[in-house]
Design goal:
The protein is about 25% helix and about 25% strand. The protein is globular and about 70 Å long.
Length: about 350
Amino acid sequence: MELTNKEWKEFVMTKLFDISGTITTNPSKLIEDGKTPRITCAATNNGFENTYKNIPTEKGCVITVDSATIGYVSYQAADFIATDHVEKITMKGGGKISRYVGLFLVQSITSSIDGKYGYGYKFSQSRIKKQKILLPVNDKGDEPDYAFMEKYMKQKETELLKQYKKQVSELERVVPLSEKKWNGFEIGKLFKISAGKSKGLNHLQNVTKGGINYLGATNSNNGVLAYVQKVEQMTHKGNSICFIRNGEGSMGFSVYKAENFIATSDISVGYADFLNKYVGLFITTVADKVRGKYNFGYKRNETRLKKEKILLPTDAKNEPDFAYMENYMKALEREKIKQYLEYKYRDN
C-alpha cells in the first residue's frame, strides 16, 4: 500500500470533525500515584505529563491539539485529564477515532499547519475549525478513505514488528557489568568540548516540521524544549553528548544526541571518535551519577566539567572498553524489544 497510489482531497476540519475544548484539571487538585494520564500542551511524549488518581474528565480515542502556541497534535487512546489550552477532535457526532486512523490523521494535520502558527498567531480553536487538511479519498473521490488509513498504518506497524523480531533473534549474551573492571576517566580527556550557542528561545522561530531540536537545561524529553527553525551558525552536529551545566533540577545531567540540534549556553557539547548511539547512551547513564555533586553554590562550569571523572568498564590495556559498552547497550535494547513483543502477542 502506497500513499502515492491514492487520490487526495482537501477538507475543512469542521466538515469531518467536532472540535471542542477540554475540562481543565487544576494542578492543586491533582492526586498522585494513579492511572489517569494528564495531557498537556507539550510537544513531546504525546503530550503526556504523568498519571494521577483523578477521575478522567475526557474520553479517549480522540485527537488533542495545543491551542496555546503552534498546534502540537497527538492521539489519545485512553481516557484522560487535561491542562489549559488542550483542544480535542472527535468524529462528527462524538464518534471515536481508532488508533490507526488517529495516528494517520495526526500526521496529516501536523503537515498542514507546519510553520503557519506561532506565539503571535496561535492555533486557536476557531482557527482549528477553519483549518484545511489533505486526506486520501474513497473511489468516489468525495469522502476520506478511513479504511485505507487504517490498513496503511497497520502495514507500517507490521513492518516495524518484523524489524524488531529480527533484532531479538540476534540477541547474544554479554558479560555482566559486575564482571568487568572499572576505572575513572576525566571528561576533558575523553571529549573535545564546545559550548552551546543560543541565548534563549525568544530569538528563534518555533515550527512543527522541517526544523531542528532546541536543547535546554532540562533532564526531560532527552533535553528537548522545543522544535525550532534551523539557524546554521547556532547548529551543533549530532552524535555528541550534551552535558547540562546549569538549571534547577537538571544540573549535572547529560543526554546523547544522534541528530543535529541547537543548544542553550547552559550546555557543553562533547565530541569523540569512539562515540555512537550505544556508547553515548552507556556513558550518559554513568555520567548522570555525578549530578548530586552540583548546586547553585557549586555550579558545573566548564573547568569543573573537564576535570569531572566518570567510571567506565575497561579492556586488557586498562583503557575504556567502548566495544563492550556498545554490545551491552545493544543487548539491553534487544531484551526490551523482546519484552515488548511478548506483551504485544501475549493474547495471540
